[in-house]
Amino acid sequence: MQPPSHFPGDELDRRIVAHLLDHSRATFSDIGADVGLSASAVKRRVDRLRDRGVIRGFTAMVDRGHGSPRTEAYVELYCAERTSRADIRCAMERHPEVAEICVVAGAPSAVVRLCADDLEHLERTLERIRLEPDVLRTRSVIVLSRLIERHTRRDRTRADAPQAGAKR
């Protein structure tokens, strides 16, 4: 299958990324055996993909309650009318509890995912965020539990999606 038009690499790059998404701790040698390249060729390609921002990093996912923050919330930010995305980003970067910021369609200016140690920590963080000059108000929902978590598979799902008219 050819890589989708939005994937910035060739078929070997796509296969390397797919392998890393399934087995992030695989050695370059293991990946090379899977895709038909030497370990050094895989390393060069991975380095190039990292330099181009296709691969942003490698991480360990720790289960909640085993060292990672246990309280998570999604916060709708409602900002002053002329607040730019850069202003929102700059303001939220000051808060280490901010795990993710998304610009969304609809009424909020952005949606922020917060990770805190407990409810008190979350409350203090929300109070600090509400003091930001461009933040007019917030609306929060607290995550009680996760039913599905696919964060590491998102890009692979898009890269492996069948193309229109393609036969399987």
From TrEMBL:
Keywords of the record: DNA-binding, Transcription, Transcription regulation
GO molecular function: sequence-specific DNA binding
Keyword hit for DNA-binding: yes
All residue ranges annotated as the HTH asnC-type domain in the record: 10-69
One GO cellular component, as annotated: cytosol
GO BP field: response to amino acid
Keyword Transcription regulation: yes
PANTHER family: LEUCINE-RESPONSIVE REGULATORY PROTEIN, TRANSCRIPTIONAL REGULATORY PROTEIN (PROBABLY ASNC-FAMILY)-RELATED
Protein name from the UniProt record: Lrp/AsnC family transcriptional regulator
Species of the source: Actinomadura decatromicini
